Structure formats: C-alpha cells, structure tokens
C-alpha cells in the first residue's frame, strides 16, 4: 500500500540519513526502483513529473500501474507516490487520482502568492492523508519544462513556508537539475545551515541529486537533508546500457530485438544506480 512520505522522512531526519526520490517514466523504471528498494529493505519515493505523468497517459494510469505492481511484486517497504514540481492544478489532479504525496512548486511566484497557494494545498493534501512538499528559491536548470533560475533561498522565506504545515521543504542552495557544468560552484552549505536553523525539525529536500559529489551529499544530510531527488542519473545509466547493447549488435542476435530483452540492460543499469544512491544516502535497511 502506498504511504505518505511524512513518517519515512521524519525518521530519516532524526536518523541522519536520506530517502531517495527516483523519478519514473514507464513500467521498467518503476519495476527497477521498487525491486531495488525491496531487496535493500529501503523506504523509497517514486517521483512523477507532470511531463512523465502525461507520457504515461495520465495520473490514474500511474496509480493503477504502481498499485498493481506493488501487490504483484509483494513490495512491503514504505513507498510514496509523489508528484514532482507540480503546478496548483497538477496537485489537485494527483489528489484525485490517488497519489500519496504531492509537491507544489510555487518557487516562480512572488513569495506571497507561493505562500497563499501552498497554504490551500496543505489543507487539501492533509484532508486526504497525503504529504506535501513546497519549494522556496528556485532550483537551477531545466526538468521536463520546469526551468529554474538557480538562486539560493532566503532562510526567512523558508521559515514562512515551513510554518504553513508542509511536511518537507525544498530550498535552492545552488543545486541544479541535470548535469552540473564544469564551473559549478558547489552547494551553499552556509545557506543550508541557515535554513535548517530557521526550520528546525522540518525534513529538507535536495533536488538535482545527479552528479553531486559524495562528500557534498553526506554534508547536506548532516545539515538536515532527508530526501534527495535523482532523475537524470537513471536516464543516463539507462541510455548508456541500451546504447552498448545495440552497438554490440545484440538486438540482431536471435530474439535480441524482443523489447523484454532490449530493455533489460537499461533496466539493470537503473537498478545499479538506485542501489548505489540508497547506499550513499544511508537508507538501506531502514524500512
Ligand atoms: O525533481 C527531481 C530532481 O530534482 C532530479 O534532478 O535530474 O538532476 O537528478 P536530476
Ligand atoms: Zn527537482
């Protein structure tokens, strides 16, 4: 059964580890992530961007696929199905469709409007037993059409939004979606520390988890990050393994063109990436 992400993230924050949010795109992605979480006895969050939701034909299809797969795979670890970078309307659709968690990304609105909309959605999410993430200070780069400026959040604004009753908070601290440029200056731990001091026990979320060096990940966890989002890295692993399979001519050998064979190396590569991240984040054995 899907659960809200509140309890797993409160435990993670108290236990000084982080739970991974891995974005899904289709059946292979979902199966790879769920299977790995179960094998490692780790809680997990399945992230769905609005673009990926559309690609999978809609949020109801996603809910049906995830629920059916969890039952048939015998998944017993805590799993949250979470809308990633949602609009106000997208959040309402996911409440309706049966997600267990939503993110309202109001970071591009002036702070008062972000506060107003977040407040309304907190009420709705909690009436449905769902968790809700909000964002302050936009994350840089682009993810599925969501483009951010890449600014550091104002700790006072973070406090304002945290006080609305949200369950976890994403704050820009110099993190970027997608690959980091060679001249990236790194995460601003000064900002993260100030945010954690103002927001207390609130679990903090680090977006743009792809390619952040391990030591920075560990330091971020020590400063209150309890959820880390990874998307691009699974896509890169999948593409790389699939390319190798085709370049080696495997699709031309026997029934190598069968999608169940063609997609296997990529699916295995996602599993390896998820395992590596769960070990780094410290969530293994925490289900
Ligand atoms: O919301 C999702 C993430 O922040 C993923 O970022 O694609 O850079 O790993 P990423
Ligand atoms: Zn993100």
Summarize the structure.
This protein is α/β, with parallel strands linked by helices and 287 residues long. The protein has helices spanning 6-15, 27-39, 50-55, 59-73, 88-97, 111-127, 155-162, 189-199, 214-222, 232-247, 259-262, 264-281; strands spanning 19-23, 44-49, 79-86, 101-104, 131-136, 141-143, 146-148, 168-171, 204-206, 225-230. The strands form 2 sheets. An 8-stranded parallel β-barrel has the order 1-2-3-4-5-8-9-10, surrounded by 9 helices.
Strand-residue fraction? 15-25%
Instruction: Average the pLDDT over all residues and give the rounded result.
Output: 96
- Count of individual beta strands: 10
CATH fold naming:
TIM Barrel
- SS field, number of helical segments: 12
* Overall geometry: globular
State the low-pLDDT regions, or none: none
Number of domains as seen in the coordinates: 1
In CATH, the architecture is Alpha-Beta Barrel
What does this structure look like?
The protein has about 290 residues and is of the alpha/beta class. The chain has one domain: Alpha-Beta Barrel (TIM Barrel). It has 12 helices and 10 strands. The protein has an 8-stranded parallel β-barrel, surrounded by 9 helices. The chain has a two-stranded antiparallel sheet with strand order 6-7. Helix 7 (about 155-160) packs parallel to helix 8 and helix 10 packs antiparallel against helix 12 (about 265-280). It is globular, with a radius of gyration of 18 Å. The model has no long low-confidence stretch (mean pLDDT about 95). Keywords: Lyase, Metal-binding, Zinc. This is Class II fructose-1,6-bisphosphate aldolase. One of its GO terms (molecular function) is fructose-bisphosphate aldolase activity.
